[in-house]
From TrEMBL:
Pfam families: Zn_Ribbon_1 (PF13240). Residues 4-24 form the Zinc-ribbon domain. Keywords: Membrane, Transmembrane, Transmembrane helix. This is Zinc ribbon domain-containing protein. The chain crosses the membrane at residues 70-95, 107-129. It comes from Clostridium facile. The keyword Membrane applies.
């Protein structure tokens, strides 16, 4: 079985020309195979090392997932002040903590942590107070 180098059509071995496109089969087979080995070796290796690092490294130094987490944590903490506190405040706290490992948005991450922490404490305090789970001596101490 010969495969046409021009159109990849399988041809019988006794055929000299491709039955589909008329390309010569014997010589072109060898030429095309030597072409592919010569063609792939110089082109393929430089393509990956030369193009990837200059593009990837500045992006990595710019913003990474920790910075994204800082933004998400801050937004979750803010939204958690108003709604879905039981989900968003812990989520905001965790993502803000991850955001602290980032380089650029530590302030935002710290803000997200403090907002979600304070909001969680207030929430928990309110829930405990509404359910009368805070001892009397703490309440009298708070309002005295
Ligand atoms: Zn052909």
């Amino acid at each position: 079985m010969k495969v046409c180098p021009h159109c990849n059509t399988p041809n019988n071995d006794e055929f000299t020309f491709c039955k589909a496109c008329g390309e010569r089969l014997d010589e072109d087979m060898e030429i095309s195979s030597s072409y592919t080995t010569e063609y792939q070796q110089p082109v393929a290796p430089p393509l990956v090392p030369n193009v990837m690092p200059p593009v990837a490294i500045p992006q990595r130094e710019g913003y990474n997932w920790c910075d994204v987490c800082a933004i998400i944590g801050f937004i979750c903490s803010i939204i958690g002040l108003f709604t879905f506190a039981i989900i968003l405040l812990p989520l905001g706290l965790i993502t803000s903590l991850i955001g602290c490992f980032g380089k650029h948005l530590k302030g935002l991450a710290v803000a997200g942590i403090s907002i979600s922490l304070v909001a969680t404490l207030v929430r928990v305090g309110m829930i405990l107070y509404e359910n009368a789970m805070i001892p009397d001596w703490i309440i009298s101490g708070l309002f005295w």
